[in-house]
Give the backbone structure.
Amino acid sequence: MNIKNLPMEERPMEKILSTGVRNLSNTELLAVIIRTGTKAESAIGLSERILSQVGGGIKGLLNVSPEELMEIPGVGIAKACALSAAVELTKRLGRSGFEKRLSVSCAREAAEIFMEDLRFERKEHFKTLLLDTKGKVIHIDEVSIGDLTMAPAHPREIFQGAVKRSAASIILVHNHPSGDPTPSSADTVLTERLVSAGKLMGIRVQDHIIIGDGEYYSFAGMGLIED
């Protein structure tokens, strides 16, 4: 059924104006974004099919590329780009309160900076948060992007940015695509190695934070990195 044939109170845009955007289902919100369906189905029908094919419901849209969306029959470049733009806006809104943070005083604050960017990534990303002597954020370095189980993290690449920007300390951050932030034995060995390397270079490793799905693990918080 075409959306125009639905009762007025069931049309997504009209529902936003009459009852508020919060009362729309995920399918209806998606229909508003893609605007039109195909000759064979309405925007709502196409939205239901998109959510079904990406898998994982609305979360499935977080890491699907425009090219992957365009493989879904009925989704062209305009719809794929609109969906990707909406997802990116969501991510930016999620971290907007932390991008202007002047300093990091605890593991939670550091984890919040990266949570929305990394919690749904399908590959491991290894990043470093560079800090000055007062704990103010200097820069965020993207060290490497790996696969489902690991991201290459060589001391040379990890400390290169810190040396270049004269950082006094760094916080190591990487994600677990599984959503479980529990460190592996390899994570523990790597942390010990990098803490030792930092001491030799005069750059303190404050913490190593592993990002999961809405939760994180802090090596410092567990007493595994000493001041």
